[in-house]
Amino acid sequence: MPLAISYALLIPLLLWGAIIALRRVVKNSHPPYPPGPKPKFLIGNALDIPVEGASEIYMEWGRKYNSGILHVEALGNHIIILNTVEDADELLEKRANNYSDRPVIPIAKMMGWHTQMPLLGYNDEWRFHRKICQQNFRQGAMSQYFPVQKRKVHEMLQGLLKTPEEFDEHNHMLSISLALSSMYGYDPISWKDPCVQAAEKAATLAGSLLAPGGSFVNIFPALGKIPAWVPGAISVRLAGEVRRYTEEMKRIPMEYAKRKFADETAVPSLVADMLERKFTEGISDEEENAIENIAHTVYTAASDTTIGATKTFFYYMAKHPEVQTKAQAEIDRVVGSKRLPDFSDRERMPYLEAMYREVLRIAPPIPMCVPHAVSEDDYYKGYFIPKGAVVLANIWGMTHDENRYPNPYTFNPERFLDATGALNDDHRVLAYGFGRRICVGKYVGSSTLWLMMVSVLACFEIERSKDSHGNYVDMNDEYEDFGIVRHKKKIACTFKVRSEEAKKLISTTYEA
User: How far does the signal peptide extend, from start to end residue (predicted)?
Assistant: First the structure.
């Protein structure tokens, strides 16, 4: 059996080697590729591509090769890295027609994730999905989500009041339950809900497979044909597990939504609205499938990025009490102590807005944007960018560019304010991506994160944890990658209610 595995790996390697060797015999007539590490014989830069901390490593490469655009090649696959906003804007924004495709990720289909909107190719199917998203998630449609966003944030406040030591679980519940409620009208009541557990397990396993170098199947798709029972077929077995969890993630809330609709007890949601139109005016199978895909995408991808941003917020509030104090002073001045913050307060809180921008600048949840793919050969700055190349925008590198953001590793909301304390013109949040593949849920994500931040600070003091001797526990600065998403590692902090008035406000709001 091990011999069979060896041949399964050896044959595609030999074929790739022959193809690459042949290419190098033929003289290329195109300009050079952008600079990057020197490729090795046969395997190219396969050993140079970082598995973790890619954004920081690509920044180092940019300094080493004195270029904002880089190139690596691994087994015939070309990868272009963009380290500057200027290059990303030129290629992903101005030349969006040629840079809006997605690379084919074989392991995604094996996991059942190939229908998620962020992974769809740049085609009519994606455009149809995009149209539905623009109708439902555009800035002008945000008010329809305000009630569920407020309810879920208030439930989080209640959780922090009752069991503050479980803040990490309350954070996860906010993100996942908000997505389930707004998409399906499904309200999980605890962390042990089967839908929540399926989502957590699927995301954890999928992250390891989607990470750079996470699976040889993405390089040699034929390996995906190996039976799961064959020793060494780890990716095939893990992909099968993700698929099973993914099917549960889809089945449970969809069956719930259909049952509630049939009972005439459905609450407003994306799927409930679809079912209403399906049985009144009629909709196409294409639209029904697209809405189901979008709902599942929001439930998986969007909730994970919100979790990452919230963890960063908790961490920096505990680490920088002076920032927290300034934010709370603004909240007290604008909101007072007789009510909880609301969306209508946002435009009157420049410091909170600056803090929101700084959270997403210093630690964008997706440090390397979801990969783009080139549709046709292109030329830029005298370099050749081949058709089919994968293009990675180093968002983390851009938000840590010293020319754009002095002292980029310092958490400093004031960088987004002018001398009068008003917001400056740096209103662009790079964390949401570029071009036509920019995050379609950015307005929902922005309002959710902002309301969570302002509500938690209105009610709680976030402090560093102390040991049994009353000394502060050291806080590590480390983050960890889960595929393309990055989360802050475990945080040692505590939540203390600010006042009896705040406690009363939390206790008298929505029931948890």
Answer: 1-21
